[in-house]
Amino acid sequence: MASGSQSLVKYDTKIQVSTSLKGRGKSPRKIPGKPNVPPDKAQIEDVLNSVLPPRESTEDGQLWVQYVSSTPATTQDVIKLQEQLDTLLEARQARETGICPVREELYSQAFDELIRQVTIICTERGLLLLRVRDELRMTIQAYQTLYESSIAYGMRKALQAEQWRAETDVKIKTLSEECENLKKEVEQLEQEIEDIEINERDREEKAAKLHYEEVEFRKKTNQRLKENLEAILATPNK
């Protein structure tokens, strides 16, 4: 956490550690403890510093360190903490529901401040709260990982569905064109069948007409021949 950022955790005034940053990185730098601290309070501060490490900052090439406060909290401090939490939630426009990094950060700071207050009163209780905090963070991280995995899975499925839909649209278009072509072919065949039926009906009508005319002609011919024969038979022989 940057020292310049506003935090709900209560820290002491910054202490200058070094007037120059030259040579940093050549050897491990150890942050000195607070001077003139009674042994019993020093033990509490050691626990606090292990739970909530000091914050470092640089200003004008100088290194500053800021230890977490070992001053016990009063009832007013707790009420003020709650008010600050509500104010920061509103100021930073934290979402009230769902996943919100801002809300998570602010509540984490508030919980760290409560751990600080409890640790000063009872070190063992503070360490137990620290375990609870770490377990909660691991649980939240697990849920975030699961959420991200589900989002990735959902995205993959959405892409697959989009690809399947595109392929299906192509198949539908192809089948629709085939159906349209087959429909035209069916219409063409039906028209050919209709034309054949008409032609066949006309041919049959013409054939029937010719047959009728031929029959009539033969009847008339037979009738004339019969009349001629009768006339010949009726004529007396001389």
Q: If you had to describe this structure to a student in words, what would you say it looks like?
A:
- 8% of the residues are buried.
- Helix content is 68%, strand content 6%.
- It is mainly alpha-helical and 238 residues long.
- Helix 2 (75-91) packs antiparallel against helix 3 and helix 3 (101-121) runs antiparallel to helix 4 (123-234).
- The model is unreliable at 21-29 (pLDDT under 50).
- A three-stranded antiparallel β-sheet has the order 1-3-2, with no helix packed on it.
Taking all residues together, what is the mean pLDDT?
85
Q: How would the global form be characterised?
A: rod-shaped
Q: SSE string, helix = H, strand = E?
A: EHEEHHH
**Main beta sheet strand tally, sense and closure:** 3 strands, antiparallel
- Poorly predicted spans: 21-29
- Our Rg estimate from Cα atoms comes to 53 Å
Keywords: Coiled coil, Dynein, Motor protein
Pfam families: Ax_dynein_light
GO molecular function: dynein heavy chain binding
Protein name: Inner dynein arm light chain, axonemal
Give the key terms:
238 residues; 4 helices; 3 strands
Task: Give the arrangement of secondary structure elements.
Blueprint: E1 15-18, H1 39-51, E2 55-59, E3 62-66, H2 75-91, H3 101-121, H4 123-234
